[in-house]
């Protein structure tokens, strides 16, 4: 998994991702951008930290963000950015730091958006984009560190950083649903290749895009909007067809957070059920969804 979304400048707080001189393309290969970065710098930048390193980094960042004094939060944030984002050479630790440092800011911004407190439409659009960018930052932290970042750990980190456990659980569960459904579709393999959406596609209401394998000459893409429910029951219809988003047909798929493991995968029974329901909808839409072998 690459950190392309972060390192291409889509997340304003992560300045050092851009200044380091390299990024990862979608195949995960380091690519030099003309800044003359040496091989050993690339090795350091793309080093994979351990779970213990991430936890220690988290604890250090939290301690820095909470110095005593009335202006402590502002000064703490400034020091944390300088130390753990701008001063950190390892991209994955930079991403974790940017995520944690901005958690409370994003919580406050989400409350303003949900509460209708931003009246200017241009400001509202910018706020929604910032929230989407942050969503993708958190998603990249998960995908770049599959052996070191888990659902429960990430929820604890964001709960501490934001001061709101309910928001953190909802945020992590939402991303977990996207990752888990895409993984289940690709593991099954019959319906085509699933990938997570770009920021622009996300803002159009799609979390996953499925390139259908129906044997026709023209490729057909299906958008999927994943709705992960933390505690409330699933709706009677767990997969429904929505109006098109641009050229894409869109399905809305409801998931239960309890059906997603700590490693961001659907448990087998839930994965089988969701894939079959999606296949049924694809057939009803006039596309051919192959039957499960055996």
Major beta-sheet overview: 5 strands, mixed
Question: Percent range for helical residues?
Answer: 40-55%
How large is the count of helical segments? 12
Q: Give the N-terminus to C-terminus distance in angstroms.
A: 33 Å
Shape: globular
Q: Biggest sheet, strands in spatial order?
A: 3-4-5-7-6
Beta-strand share of residues? 5-15%
Structural class: alpha+beta
Provide the residue-averaged pLDDT: 81
- In total, how many domains does the architecture comprise? 2
> What is the radius of gyration?
20 Å
H and E order: HHEEHHHHHHHHEHEEEEH
Verbal overview:
This protein is α+β, with helices and mostly antiparallel strands. It is built from twelve helices and seven strands. A five-stranded mixed sheet has the order 3-4-5-7-6. The chain has a two-stranded antiparallel ribbon with strand order 1-2. Strand 6 and strand 7 (248-256) form a beta hairpin. Helix 4 runs parallel beside helix 6 and helix 10 packs across helix 12. The longest helix has 24 residues, at 121-144. Residues 1-37 have low confidence and may be disordered.
């Amino acid at each position: 998994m690459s950190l392309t979304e972060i390192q291409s400048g889509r997340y304003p707080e992560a300045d050092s991702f851009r200044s380091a001189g390299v990024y990862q393309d979608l195949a995960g290969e380091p690519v030099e951008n003309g800044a003359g970065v040496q091989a050993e710098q690339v090795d350091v930048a793309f080093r994979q930290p351990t779970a213990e390193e991430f936890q220690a980094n988290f604890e250090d960042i939290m301690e820095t963000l909470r110095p005593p004094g009335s202006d402590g939060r502002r000064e703490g944030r400034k020091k944390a950015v300088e130390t753990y984002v701008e001063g950190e050479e390892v991209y994955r630790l930079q991403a974790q730091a940017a995520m944690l440092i901005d958690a409370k800011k994003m919580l406050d911004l989400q409350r303003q958006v949900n509460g209708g407190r931003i009246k200017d439409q241009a400001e509202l659009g910018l706020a929604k984009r910032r929230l989407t960018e942050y969503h993708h930052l958190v998603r990249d932290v998960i995908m770049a560190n599959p052996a070191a970042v888990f659902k429960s750990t990430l929820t604890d980190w964001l709960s501490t950083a934001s001061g709101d456990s309910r928001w953190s659980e909802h945020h992590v569960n939402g991303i977990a649903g996207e990752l888990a459904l895409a993984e289940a579709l690709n593991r099954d393999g019959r319906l085509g290749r699933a990938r997570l959406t770009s920021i622009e596609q996300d803002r159009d209401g799609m979390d996953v895009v499925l390139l259908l394998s129906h044997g026709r000459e023209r490729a057909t893409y299906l958008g999927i909007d994943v709705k992960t429910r933390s505690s409330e029951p699933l709706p009677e219809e767990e997969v429904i067809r929505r109006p098109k988003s641009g050229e894409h047909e869109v399905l809305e798929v409801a998931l239960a957070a309890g059906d997603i493991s700590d490693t961001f995968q659907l448990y087998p029974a839930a994965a089988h059920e969701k894939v079959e329901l999606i296949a049924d909808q694809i057939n009803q839409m006039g596309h051919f969804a192959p039957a499960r072998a055996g």
